[in-house]
Write a structure and sequence with these properties.
46% helix, Rossmann fold, alpha/beta, 11 strands, six-stranded mixed sheet, globular, five-stranded mixed sheet
Length: 418
């Protein structure tokens, strides 16, 4: 019985099987490519503000170290379990390989609702998590980054904790840090900027005029809010926005910058002065660009048949189930899919830039970061589109096969030790 279970891991396994079949990978090779190299489960006890002691379950999965250290975010959410973390680490491997980054995939997390913790409790839990993982991570072993429920401050606590145990400042142990602590300009915006840039690439492919285009953003966290703002600033009319607390839809357009200010002040969209909409119907409203930027598996088979977008830009990890994928394939060129391993790769690409700058202690400006980000995104987008057209396969199969094949070839060249 495998420790990797649950719907998210089975989704990753199903996707990999599809790619392995397409690439003709021998059955004897498949487990080595799919199963993580290392999976760590830890207990994180902390003192709560009321004097009690609470223990939280933490995880870290390192998928492979064939191309270099592993790289991946750390998620604080009540839903976190080993299967979910392993799936996210696997997807990160293909994402890094598609972008040409010298990393394997990793992911970590703690099963906790961070909103339920006080600032002191959050700091204590963050530091304890890093402390427990010190034997298993390092700048050339596994480099952490933020994810759902974590941010620049949590990364600064991670970095400080690791540095205290090393007796020196080790900026390069995490990415997504504040600029003042060795972070890079552009990292916080990177994923949302990437979603926007790739949506414009897709609009160019489809000959859609941006100033006449509409967009819907499901999930108004860091990725969704920045993608929405950047799309709106370039003339796209954002007509739908939602988060876990509220949903809004207006064909005349929504003020996403005002929404962002509201979220910064209130913590969520709840209470924003606009007419609310039924959340379950938002994804299926007609639009040119649909950005699911919240959780996994929000587009299932039932939703896939009802989508009325021209471009599906997957800002979240794994928002489309394999069953929905098959239905989208059957729709042919009806919907231009930008799969998650490309669409949300801006974050890990700029995390790579941050790691490189920390190692060299030589930092770039914002414009240089964004320019280099766009170059890698353009290269990956073109490779995906060309392979899709050549082999008459879906964009997801194309993008994932490029990533899987690069890891596979690297493993073959290195061989199996001993």
């Amino acid at each position: 019985m495998s420790i990797f279970q649950g719907p998210v891991f089975e989704m990753a396994r199903t996707q990999f099987t599809t790619i392995a079949d397409y690439l003709g990978i021998e059955e004897s090779e498949r487990d080595r490519l799919l199963l993580p190299k290392r999976a760590i489960a830890i207990s994180c006890p902390i003192h709560l503000d009321d004097g009690r002691t609470a223990v939280f379950q933490g995880y870290r999965v390192q998928h492979h170290l064939t191309l270099g250290p592993t790289k991946g975010g750390t998620r604080f959410a009540a839903s976190v379990d080993m299967g979910e973390v392993a799936a996210l680490a696997i997807w990160m491997s293909w994402k890094c390989a598609l972008a040409g980054l010298p990393y394997g995939g990793a992911k970590g997390g703690i099963s906790v609702d961070p909103v339920s913790l006080s600032p002191r409790e959050l700091e204590a839990l963050s530091r304890r998590y890093m402390q427990e993982l010190i034997p298993f991570v390092g700048p050339h072993v596994d480099v952490m980054a933020p994810d759902m429920g974590t941010n620049e401050q949590v990364m600064a606590w991670f970095m400080d904790t690791y540095s205290m145990y090393q007796g020196r400042t080790v900026n390069e142990i995490v990415t997504g840090k504040p600029v003042q602590s060795g972070g890079t300009e552009g990292r916080r915006e990177a994923t949302g900027l990437g979603v926007m840039h790739l949506a414009f690439s897709a609009m160019q492919e489809l000959s859609i005029e941006p100033t006449k285009a509409t967009a819907i953003i499901q999930g108004f966290g860091n990725v969704g809010s920045i993608a929405g703002i950047e799309l709106a600033r370039r003339g796209v009319r954002v007509i739908g926005v939602s988060d876990h607390s509220a949903c809004f839809f207006d064909v005349k357009g929504l003020d996403v910058e005002a929404m962002t200010r509201h979220v910064e002040a209130r913590g969520s969209l709840r209470g924003f002065p606009a007419e609310e909409f039924e959340p379950g119907d938002l994804l299926t409203q007609p639009c040119d660009i649909l950005v699911p930027a919240a959780m996994e598996r929000v587009i299932d088979a039932a939703k896939a048949t009802k989508l009325r977008c021209r471009i599906l830009a997957e800002g979240a990890n794994g928002p489309t189930t394999p069953e929905a994928d098959k239905l989208l394939e059957e729709r042919g060129s009806d919907i231009f899919v930008i799969p998650d391993i490309l669409c949300n790769s801006g974050g890990v690409i700029v995390s790579y830039f941050e790691w490189v700058q920390d190692l060299q202690q030589f930092f770039w400006g914002y414009n240089e970061v964004v320019s280099r980000l766009n170059q890698i995104l353009d290269r990956s987008f073109q490779a995906m589109v060309e392979r899709s057209r050549r082999d008459r396969i879906s964009h997801r199969t194309s993008a994932m096969s490029i990533g899987v094949d690069r890891v596979r070839l690297a493993k073959q060249k290195r061989g199996l030790f001993p």
